[in-house]
Each structure stands twice: as C-alpha cells, then as structure tokens.
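fyi for ur records
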Amino acid sequence: MSIACCPSPLRDPGVYEECACGKCQRGRLRVIKTPQYFHPPGASTVAVQLLSVRCDYCGFATAYPSQHKENELRRAARKSAYGGQMLGEEILAFRHKWGLSARDAGSLFGEGLHAFEAFEKETAYPDMLTNKLIRLAMHSPPVLRQLADREGVRIPLWEREMRSGLAAH
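which gave:
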C-alpha cells in the first residue's frame, strides 16, 4: 500500500487526494482545517484556518510540506489586523538572527524569560513601549549593541551579522 501522496493538480494547492495512513496502514488521510486564534491587544480576535491531514482510523495527524508553507502564509496574513503590534514569528526571527536566548532577549528589553517566550508564542504581547524598543533594536543594530552592553548580554552572532552586511548600520 503506497503512502506517498501528491497534491492533486486539479485541486487547490495544499489539498491532497486521500492517501493511506503511513502509521496504521488502515485508514485514509483526510484534509482538515483547524482554527488557531490570536488575541492582539487593541484588536479583535484573529482566527487563522490551518491545514493538515488526519487519519480517519487511528487519528494520526500531520501537515504536508505544502500545507506547512500555506499555513505560514495564512499566519503572516494576519499582520494587517495587528495594528503596530509585532507577530510572534517576527520577534522569534529577530532573536534567532542574533543568536540570543529567550532569557538574554528578555534581559535586553526589560522582560523576563517567560514573558519573552510568551511574546513569541503570542500567549502574551509586549506593551507598546516594549514593542517599540524591540522594533527599534530590529532596525538599528547600534541600539541593540547599546542595550546588550548596558545589560551585560553577549550577542553571539554580532560579528557574523556585521561582516555579512545583513544588519544595516
């Protein structure tokens, strides 16, 4: 029984023909949509319908690469509803770009480890002042450097980013 599945060329991207479940080999994988809810401050709740597949026999669930890609696009599209608030993915990408731990990022911006992790997962949101400070550090590496020096935080990827020219002066 084949478990390889390909998108149907006759359907929308991310929609798959029914495939055999690779886990139990008895069920069929069916496309499902699961809402993910976000609650940015000062805005209405934002619902994003995420795509995946679930076995109708054993319940195994996964997302195909094209569904993952589509889900990223769907999550990114919610930005228009956020006003000036950053997406959790933007905060996480900023931290990873510079090689910062969540603890160090929290120290830089006057927040704790748990608060910064919550910002990235969007279970909490930075207040507007913290939001502005993070955004300023994102767009101005010298501000990031000054915050790090002041807090005694090492920026692991500082030299690499400065040499590569990815970070504008």
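Residues 65-76 form the longest helix (12 residues). thats all i got for now
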